Amino acid sequence: MGYIRLYGQFLRVAILGKVQYKADFFVGIVSVLILNAVNLSLIGILVYNFNTLGNWNIWDLMFLYSFWMLSRGIYGVFFWHLSDLEEMIVNGTFDAYLVRPVSPFLQFIGKDISYTGVGDFLVGFLGFILAGTQIKLQWNAGQWIYFVICVLSGALIQVAINWVGASLCFWTTRSGAAVSIAERFTVLMQQYPVNIFGRYFQIFVTCFLPVAFINYYPSVVLLHKAEGGLQIWQYFSPLVALLMLVIAAFIWTKGVGRYAGTGN
Amino acid sequence: MIEVKRLTKEFKIPVQKKGQFAAIRNLFSGEYTVKHAVDDISFSVGDGEIVGFIGKNGAGKSTTIKMLSGILQPTSGSITVDGIRPFEQRMENAKQIGVVFGQKTQLWWDVPLIESYRLLREIYKIDTAVYQKNLDRYIPMLGLEEVINKPVRQMSLGQRVKSDICAALLHSPKILFLDEPTIGVDVVSKKYLHDFISEINSEKGTTILLTTHDMGDIEKLCSRVVVIDSGHLMYDGDLESMIARFGAVRSLMIEFEKPVPDFEIENAELTRSEGNRKWFSFHRSKATPLHLVHAIDDRFPIQDIAIIEPDIESIVRNLYESS
Question: What residue intervals traverse the membrane (chain A) (predicted)?
């Protein structure tokens, strides 16, 4: 409880810091809008050119993409700066977190906030409304709750992937390349339903780098897209998120321990 | 307050290969050399002492500070800081220490200084009355009134370091570690820092350990010095006996009424000659300036004299050379 309050205090300072750069703030907001206008038209092209992909029609695809954007927005606002860790280790500013009586992760996560995520979230929200009306979603309360939980889980899976990626620099000092490959891979594949790819690819994005749980499996569940009946594990996004966070926290803790050993 | 016994810190440094595809072979090479950044050092610091750590770059000063503050894990040996083992009990240790790295700020860069302090109050759970009392006392002492609402990024280096030191003391720590606090700081700010550090030490009894290259810091602040070189402890004792042992050679500058030829004199050595001026060095125990001046004045009329005490740089140099 104390930590949540403290995190709030950190965020307050992070937001204050952002507002200090007024010009940058406005340029940032404008560029977020432009970026997302481009994103939206890309979805438009997608929708126009593929009438269907497998058993997914254009509005299903839009739902899938919007689902990802919603989760990416939440991840982006609060965790975009995970990749700053590399720089902090190289220039030694990470040391400051180790001489204060609060978890280093909390201090690191609380140091910044990013408004580009807000744009992603808004695009996701608009896309979801549009696709939802076209698909004529008729969900009961349980499905709505599951939807919200899965959007959050999707955000947390992305947090976990980038958290692991960032933690790698405790060993390698530089981990930017690995993280950006994972990021590009995620960006590329989140726009398509996983079942249009080959079997090995499906196994990979389900078991090894479980990005299919960010938006694909929740969409399969919520839009009834399962071929040959729903499998129980297709509901598992929240569990996958939880498991990945545990793994990420473990790697982070090991990494901080290693940092104390080598000092860099 | 601080007990350090047989402290050692080794770093493994990968061996850099040369030749074809060196970068790729380095990537997969498991070879490394072991560097002893700190090698079998023992010392203790009493309650309320100010101890200065001196040594060249890479001597192991910062590594020692990092181990004392819990950032780095010792390879072997033991440390207790007021009964707490800094690395194993990092959080406990953090509550009772304040740390300032002169080269990098720990404050929030983009927000007014006071916002950093408010956040630190939350982080350390500082009692509101204590926080306000410390703030009211330290801000005027350090001359921070005009920057308290300024973001750190707009501050001069001197202002920034003063702000950092104030930040490190808000939670009234028992021990303060200062890693090169005056590096690059202007003379006026330096004086503020010296006065402030001595005052905190005498008023609150805060134990202070500082590393520095600036001998002015040592002369102003420390009664005791620890000299480290390549990870080894070279000297640990009070400043006066270090000066007596390794700073026994003083200099005498004499300005004559008119140019005179070089000459020899008993118990002193002519070291430099320039226009009307000559410099002689002499050992503290063998001659006094007065006796030398008399002896010289008998031969050539003297216009002016100056006695030059050895500076700490030269003392440390002597110390290095003697080992």
Answer: 25-50, 62-82, 113-132, 144-165, 200-223, 235-253
How would you label A35-52 residue by residue, b for 16+ Cβ within 10 Å and e otherwise? ebeebeeebeebbeeeee
- 3 state SS of B32: strand
B182 with B294, same domain: the answer is: no
Chain B residues lying within 8 Å of A262, measured CB to CB: 11-12
Residue of A nearest to B122 (CA): A6
User: Nearest 5°: phi and psi at A40?
Assistant: -60, -45
- Domain ranges for chain A, please list them: 2-262
pTM of the shown model:
0.85
Is B267 found in the same domain as B235? no
Residue B113 within a domain: yes
Residue B5 in domain: no
Answer whether A212's CB lies under 8 Å from A202's CB.
Answer: yes
Quick: pLDDT tens for A35-61: 877 877 777 787 677 777 778 888 898
Residues in chain B with CB shorter than 8 Å from the CB of A7 are: none
- If you average pLDDT over residues B306-313, what whole number do you get? 81
Look at the block and give the residue holding tokens 């939670």.
B171
CATH number of the domain where residue B261 is located:
3.30.70
Which tokens in the block code for residue A236? Answer: 């598992």
Cβ atoms of B303 and B251 closer than 8 Å: no
Rounded Cα distance, A152 and A71, in Å: 6
Q: What is the pLDDT of residue B23?
A: 63
Q: Do A101 and B124 touch (CB under 8 A)?
A: yes
Q: By residue range, what is the domain housing residue B149?
A: 45-244
Is B91 within 8 Å of chain A by CB?
A: yes
Residues β-bridged to residue A117? none
Residue B103: per-residue pLDDT: 85
Same domain, B49 and B195: yes
Q: Do residue B268 and residue B204 come from a single domain? A: no
Taking the Cβ of residue B79 and every Cβ of chain A, the question of whether any pair is shorter than 8 Å is answered with no
- Nearest alpha-carbon partner for B143 in B107, B195, B104: B195
- Residues B63 and B212 grouped into a single domain: yes
Question: What is the least distance, in Å, from the CA of A118 to any CA of chain B?
Answer: 21
Rounded CA separation A38/B298 (Å): 94
Structure tokens at A88: 């902090």
Domain tally for chain B?
A: 2
Assess if residue B79 is contained within a domain: yes
Sheet containing strand B32-45, edge to edge, reads: B32-45, B2-14, B76-81
CA atoms within 13 A on the CB side of A77: 14
